[in-house]
Amino acid sequence: MEMHLKILRFDPEVDQEPHFQTYTVSTSSEERILDCLNKIQGEQDGTLAYRKSCGHGVCGSDAMRINSTCRLACQELAKNYFDKEVVVEPLPGYRVQKDLMVDLEPFFEKVNLVRPYLIATDPPPKKERMQTPDDRKKVDQVIRCILCACCTAACPVALENETFLGPAPLVWAFRRVFDTRDEAHLQRLRLLDSFDGVWGCQNRFECTRVCPKEIPITKNINHMKRKIQEVLPQSEGTS
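Given the sequence above, the corresponding structure tokens read:
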């Protein structure tokens, strides 16, 4: 089966404006969009730039916009696109480094802002910090996040307000807010209690729709809103 991929190309060192370039590749039903990009790069145009690594939906490096939806190219089966033109673009909201590669440094800076690591003052135990199965279940869904940035690139609020933390950083905040081993719950909730934090979320659900790991992101953000209202009566959400 032949497939036509219309790819947005842009090299800031030589191009004044982005432009689309169309390629035709032969593919089969079990192959994925990433396989098609690999064929283009390996057989037709070695200048095409994009990120890839594991190829199995684990690393999140091949996130891009495919037919107007942020997705992982390694998870998109070619057979689902046989009857349509495939338009491939870089993730929106980030500076394009070249073609489908974007600068995700601002994204990771916001993840770091929420301190996405366990904070505990007592000396580390010899083996591990114990947690009950029920407590672990509270964060079972969010630990699937692979930091692909699909959710943040699809978020209308994040695209309009560059100071909004965004869905993925809030997912990582949720992971620690509801981790019973963490001792910085109050500080974390105060950090999130702003319109650049949880209150910036407008429940558009775009983040949840595009998440390749099917994390209920919007639901989790709303859980944190309720938690803040319980713990901080004078929060931004109640003032």
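The mean pLDDT is 95. Try to locate this feature in the token string yourself.
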